[in-house]
What we know:
The protein is an alpha+beta fold and about 375 residues long. Helix content is about 25%, strand content about 25%. The chain has one domain: 4-Layer Sandwich (Deoxyribonuclease I, Chain A). Strands 1, 2, 3, 4, 14, 15 and 18 form a seven-stranded mixed β-sheet that branches. The protein has a seven-stranded mixed β-sheet with strand order 5-6-7-8-13-10-9. The longest helix is centred in the first third of the chain and has 25 residues.
Amino acid sequence: MRKTIFHILAVAVLWAACCSLAQAQRGRSYVIGFYNLENLFDTYHDEGKNDQEYLPDGANQWTEAKYARKLTNMATVIRAMRDDNKVWHAILGVSEIENRHVLEDLVIQPEIAEADYQIVHYDGPDRRGVDVALLYRPDVFQVLESRSIPYTFDSTIRFDMSPEEQADFRTRDILMVRGMLGGEMFAFFVAHLPSRLGGKGQDLRARGGEIMYQESMRLMAQYPGIKIVAMGDMNDNPTDESMAVYMHGKERIEDVGPADFFSPFLSMLKAGYGSLAYQGEWNIYDILVVNANLVDAPRGSLRIIPIVKNKYYGRIFHKPFMTQQEGPYKGTPFRTYSSGTFVGGYSDHYPTYIVVSTKSEAK
């Protein structure tokens, strides 16, 4: 009897060791992404929010049926990314959401409920009434702190606005969430930088990049070794001043110094990729950049890895159902409204993401 028990225990120990070895060889991998949800509003008026267009009696005649369709569509895209990657996003930054309520409705949609996404969100001052937020899986990411960073003009940048205009200016705050991902300290910034409407705002977007960079440097000084991902709808391409100069975004990994960020979508933009189209031109405004600690990471710790053609470190996710199949906008993201008419699409942006991994092939 004792011999039998000994053999059972020996087999169990051997099996556990083999599983541990196999897991170590596979490594840990996490998908980190961003998605502009294109005006995810509920059907109720929020005091102080400019949501009149998105009410049942508003310009868009935003009914419960349309809202339900929008939630299903957003969840369908998130589910499709999970099916493609065989794993849910660990972190998903989002923009153009009205409030926490719409995210609470989103994360319980049948398509994605099993991911058990939790929410970090703050009501912001934006005049359009939209905010940014972070969705995360609590089984892999533990939040230590979060802050809503206000947009300020305390900068050496020369602004087109007068001091009075600056005092009256309202835009989205930048969200910062710090926590532990896979046992390592990370900080995530989620931004939706000022609009390009009227061909303006280059100085304002430059200031947004500067705010994220300065906050990143403070975190790196306070927490040596912290890994940082800044993401968002930057309303700029990776080649523009806000990202290339003020965010110190570098195209090539070998050019990334200790105080720089690697910009994986910069080379993809040059290769003709795009996350949104405007007047027939493709752009990548949906950007993720990572600090040097995610590029030159010690062996066995998390680092960014190539995921497209074993060459590109970012992915722009799109499927035929997310793309307009006919008409003048054929081939571009299938949006919710087109020329003022509800067409029941998804978003005017494609989502983007990166993968961080401990796999030995990550270089």
